[in-house]
Amino acid sequence: MRRTLLLSLVVCLVNIHQAEIIDRCALAKLLHQEDMDGFEGYSLSDWLCLAFVESNFNISKVNENADGSFDYGIFQINSHYWCTDHQSHSENICHLECQELLGPNLLSTIRCAKIIVSGTGGMKNWAAWRMHCSDRPLSYWMTGCHLG
User: Fold this and answer.
1) Would you call 71 a catalytic residue per the annotation?
2) Which one of 6, 65, 105, 137 has the minimum C-beta count within 10 Å?
3) pTM of the entire predicted model
4) Which of 20, 46, 64, 71 is catalytic?
């Protein structure tokens, strides 16, 4: 029992250590630099809310879904449609390796997110955004962030 508890603690600490969290305002600044404010009608607050509800600003997050696909990165981009992870069938609409969505350089993630929101459904492609961000006041996500 003690050994199992110790092993569980070590696994939790390793997982915490592997998380790569980006500061909310640093993300806002990067998204602003990449012309995401107003892209397809979505504000920086929409993008920040999405990043929070999908990954808690964790750019290295990977989540396995019930259908065997995986969600990757800060926006939890799905491997079935948007990227390839060579573990399951993928349409690979963004033409990239899913691993590219996990690095500190978020340009591939931003490029793919632009492709996603440019298509049918926009941000409604993310269930978490629909449930927690859509049709809600979101301006507080930018509180304290200076983009200049």
Assistant:
1) yes
2) 137
3) 0.86
4) 71
